[in-house]
Amino acid sequence: MSQTFSPAEAARLAAGDGWPLDDEQARYLAGYAGLTETWNKKMNLVGPSSAAEILRQLAADSWHLARFLDSLSLSSDPLCLDFGAGAGLPGLPLRAFWTRGSYHLVEARAKRASFLRYATARLKPANTHVHQSRVENLPQDLRGADLIVSRAFMPWRDFLDISLDFLSPGGICLVMANEPEPVGAGDCVEAGAGPTQWRLVAGTRYTVLDAVRYFWAFTPVSISK
Question: By CB count within 10 A, which of 61, 136, 149, 186 is most buried?
Fold first, then answer.
């Protein structure tokens, strides 16, 4: 773990970017950023190289995501899947701010799954689990999810398509994007060739270090043909 990136420094940088941290959040996020910095030197987990950059450029998404999730109609105890979790983004930083339900980090690559297991053991995020698996090989008890999240896992239409078999009725797929949502709230889009369309539940824009980013929340709608 980084020897120089302290909880106080994490809190100072986050506050400067407009997202205040309490002591526990600062400790947790300093730990996450420090671990990621250390492992990044060995296995190229993320683009930013320092703990401060990891916090400000990457973990910031999760602070905004927590606020967005609180605006959605999710149960008090949702089953959440994070496909292609990689360096634990957005899930591990997210658990500093949003601790509802059970959260499952899904990563097929062995080295990244090893990082996720180590990080969860050190940070101890609430009810958070790691699965080294391809999505299609996930166990039956992880089907029926209330929320599925992806950050750069695959193109968004493919992400919606592969998520369909894992969602509960009325479940939400959340896309993290660099462009505005493709339709207006309440409108539908098609993902794959099947008889399912997806309704945009909500979308929002936010800014991280002057870069504009977006969340889109979709739910599947069965269409008879």
Answer: 149
Task: Map out the domains of the chain as residue ranges.
Answer: 7-222
Strands 196-208 and 188-190: antiparallel
Check: CB of residue 194 under 8 Å from CB of residue 201.
Answer: no
Amino acid at 187: D
pTM of this structure: 0.93
d(CA 11, CA 20): 7
> What is the rounded CA–CA span in Å between residue 38 and residue 99?
26
| Conformational region of residue 152, where left means phi above 0, alpha means psi within -120 to 50, and beta covers everything else | left
At the top level of CATH, the class of 7-222 is: alpha beta
Q: What is the pLDDT of residues 59-91, one digit of tens each?
A: 999 999 999 999 999 999 999 999 999 999 999
> How many CA atoms are closer than 13 Å to the CA of 135, on its beta-carbon side?
21
Distance CA 132, CA 113 (A): 6
HSE-CB for 70 with a 13 A CA cutoff = 10
